[in-house]
Amino acid sequence: MRSFWMVVPALALLAGCNSNEPGNGTSITIQSQDDSGNATIASVDGKTGKVSVKLPGFSGSLDLPKLHLDGSDVDIEGVHLYPGSKVTGVDVMAKDNPDKGGAKIAFDSPASVDIVRQWFRGKFQNSGFSVNAAGQGLSGTTKEGKAYTLDLSGDGGDSTKGVLSVSG
Q1: Domain of life of the organism in this record (predicted)?
Q2: Under a CB-based contact definition with an 8 Å cutoff, are residues 12 and 57 in contact?
């Protein structure tokens, strides 16, 4: 749970990133649970700039500038999101045991599912990831051995919605 406290100031700093860009913003949620079941939750609503923290015995919120992240702000072992992508959500699940945690990054990409999938396949392979077809997306392990899934769905024409999940 101590490492969680280092993340809360980072959320406040992130909330100020790219605050002048148009759009809906990026929402971030971080959840931590210790072995006793005590849960800690922090979130940033990128649309409103509201930061909320809920701890055992305490909860609070404050308003900060809106948050906007794009594909270049995401780095999974050297792989960024498809160029021009906009991050729509980030969920981090932290546990006292790092093998039980993970992260999910939701995004919109300005290209068809086939183009986005092929782009990721090439980037993952060039970065030493294992790559398997999984529905319209991909799955495998990163070069550090963490399991990942990339779920993609068409959003009409040259637009794709995706969720990249990485364990650990």
Answers
A1: Bacteria
A2: no
Q: How far, rounded to the nearest angstrom, does the alpha carbon of residue 111 sit from its chain's CA centroid?
A: 19
Give the domain range for residue 98. Answer: 2-167
Long-range contacts, 75-81 (Cβ 8 Å, 24+): 76/142, 76/148, 76/164, 76/166, 77/127, 77/129, 77/142, 77/143, 77/144, 78/127, 79/120, 79/123, 79/124, 79/127, 79/129, 80/123, 81/105, 81/107, 81/109, 81/162, 81/164
Going by their DSSP bridges, the two strands 27-33 and 86-95 should be labelled as parallel
Q: What are phi and psi of 145, to 5 degrees?
A: 85, 15
Q: pLDDT per position in the chain (168 positions), as tens?
A: 334 333 444 444 344 444 444 456 666 666 666 666 666 666 666 667 676 767 666 666 665 555 567 778 888 889 999 999 998 887 777 655 555 678 888 999 999 999 999 999 999 999 999 999 999 999 999 998 999 999 999 977 899 999 999 987
Which DSSP symbol is given to 157?
S
Alpha-helix runs per DSSP H in the chain: 2-15, 113-126
106 contacts 162 by C-beta, under 8 angstroms: yes
Instruction: In whole angstroms, give the CA distance from residue 57 to residue 133.
Output: 45
Gap between the Cα atoms of 145 and 153, Å rounded? 26
